[in-house]
Amino acid sequence: SCGGLRNHLQGLSCSVKYYSKNSHLQTGCLRSKIKQKTCHILDCSGRMCTQMTVPPGSILPWRFFSCKEGTKIPSKQNQSTSVVTSELLYKNLLKSEQENWNSISARYKVMTERIKEKVEELHKKYTFHLESPKIRFGNNVYFEENGCIFLSKADDVDEENVDFLFSTEDLGFSDAFIQRIRISPAQRYMAISLRSENSEEATCVIMKLGHCPVMEKVIPSVFSFEWATDDVLYYTSQKNLKCQNVFMTTFTNQQLTKLVYTEQDARFFVDIYCTKDRRFLTINSNSKTTSEVWLVDCRDPFKLPALVQARTKGVIYHTEHRNDELYILTTYGQPAEYKLMKAPVASSGMENWQLVYALEKQTKLVDLEMFSDHCIMFLKNTGHLYLNVISFVSHAVQSIKLPTWACEFELESHPEHTTSTCYFQLTSPVHPPQRFAYSFEENNLIEQAVQEVPIITNCHTTRLLAKSKDETLVPITVFHNMNSKELHRKPLLVHVYGAYGIDLNMSFKEEKLVLIEAGWILAYCHVRGGGELGLSWHRDGCQQNKLKGLHDLKACIMLLHELGFSQPKYTALAAASAGGVLAGALCNTDPELIRAMVLQAPFVDVLNTMMKTHLPLTIEEQEEWGNPLTDEKHRKYIKSYCPYQNIKPQCYPSVFITAYENDQRIPLMGVLQYVQKLRKAALDHASRTSKKGNGIPNIILDIQAQGSHCDSSWEDSLN
């Protein structure tokens, strides 16, 4: 996790999945609408003070905070008959689908082995040369390879001088992978998070560094963590996909752990971030539309955190620090897109925010990286990637257009904000990551040549604009083999997402290159609801605007066919997670446009899921989909496009779905019922018509025992 503020800009991956969300709620102060929680605060002598109400997000004066230990949470003694029946139905459906998969998958064994061999070959060819991400601290460089942590000197290229520190196997976590690494300022301690493939909750392990590293502490269920000083660590706890508590733990002679902050509003997700100059830790509480930030002074980490700006409905903001000023990335003001503003630390309220730089219309801010005298904005505009380099000294802004083939940024770690060079990688679905650097001293972009890196030369990239139902122009990115003839006869794979303000994933995948080499056309439809054209692009495709994303997708596919990119009988549609909403909706409304649909961990039962408030994400998801429980208009609108609700007897395309038993985000029961209902509709249609060619489509469900919600190891993803 080294990409500046990217986690915030993309919607924290922990609070969503391909994932995150936005709203049109009535105006008014949030605090006045939330039932405030009453708690008891003890003073130093232990006497009871007057009762205090805790606002939605509140700093807890930990020296006086008291709670009863051993309090039992009441549990249900009896399960209702309906629950037992539901569990029995679930088990029967699961068993039936597993038996069906075992029977069907055998037919594809030869083809599977051939494709697997080709993908493995490309994986070795294009990823073998990539170095592991490195974290540089002064003269030391830390890096991880295959679960092992190593240390070397910054300018020493001799592999014999690399020191092995420890491995995950040594720590007793042989089945886990390292998700995040944080090193304390004086390099006395290293905190790492370890996670298995079957869970989204990580374990934080703190190692005391030295000649022989020692495991100092293990903290379960941790999401984010940062060092305030060399022996004070702040972290957030994660439970049921939610982060609402911040703790501080010390590694001094008198070790202690204290609760620092708690968030009462279920729509908000809390994480910790360290400013690039290590002056402050920020406690960030974010919903899909609103933010609140508290500052922890790293010079005095025991001091109560200070509020930057109280949450204001509809205003998102994130903070960095430089020379006693806060640099604030915010949606405050018009238009409601990201702007870079600044304010003194001592008077950080919104009334003191001054504009530094505003983004152009329909520009997506992907990431921002702060340095001592500059900041770099990583931007997307109409499918093209740019760097905007802002000088805090001269106040000049330099805009650099990046190579046209590039579709994604990957920022490398820059722990030292005084560095003179910013390193990053560019990639696309069919281009392996290529390393670049921007030099502040030379004011130019440098392509980092790597020996033996294969160059992709036979793939053509085309950018198109499709006119949607309301005349809005929707971007499409198309890839195909330059040597392909008669493109209208070639198979086409269309990708869509369109939710939470998240861009379509366009990073390099070996299997995409296999398809290109086999003559396939790949198309990525950047429909509304996603974030490719900025925050307004998301707002235009969420809640009561969800159908716009569906109209966009239909317009994109129709334009591709009109321009000679394949035809319906050779077209497949692919989507993952929330992308399943638009893909499944199109399958109901316009099944004749596609021959097949491939879904991974799809969200296909929006209405029933959003009616179940006991699920961990339902409340915060209301800002993306609406609230069908309290708003009849929302319920009817969701029902109008929900894939599960709109299945009907008709000629459906073939469907292949991958789902995960351990998926905490998408209830497997909803996927099982969707498949059953879809099969029944296809059979009903086939029985009613005797027209030639109206065969029964393949509707296949593969339920994976390993992996969790679109996130699995290389081996599992290969399978």
UniProtKB/TrEMBL annotation:
Pfam families per UniProt = Peptidase_S9, Peptidase_S9_N
Domain Peptidase S9 prolyl oligopeptidase catalytic stretches: 507-684
Single annotated GO MF: serine-type endopeptidase activity
* Descriptive protein name: Prolyl endopeptidase
Location in or out of the cell: Cytoplasm, Cytosol
> Mind telling me which PANTHER family this protein's record contains?
PROLYL ENDOPEPTIDASE-LIKE (PTHR11757:SF19), PROTEASE FAMILY S9A OLIGOPEPTIDASE (PTHR11757)
- Gene Ontology CC terms, in alphabetical order: cytoskeleton; cytosol; Golgi apparatus
Q: EC number(s) for this protein?
A: 3.4.21.-
Picking any one GO biological process from the record gives:
proteolysis
Statement: the UniProt record of this protein carries the keyword Protease: yes
| Function text | Serine peptidase whose precise substrate specificity remains unclear. Does not cleave peptides after a arginine or lysine residue. Regulates trans-Golgi network morphology and sorting by regulating the membrane binding of the AP-1 complex. May play a role in the regulation of synaptic vesicle exocytosis.
State the source organism's domain of life.
Eukaryota
The alphabetical list of record keywords is:
Cytoplasm, Hydrolase, Protease, Serine protease
Question: Which species is this UniProt entry from?
Answer: Halcyon senegalensis
Peptidase S9A N-terminal domain: from which residue to which, for each copy? 178-444
**Top-tier EC class:** hydrolase
Q: Write out the similarity annotation.
A: Belongs to the peptidase S9A family.
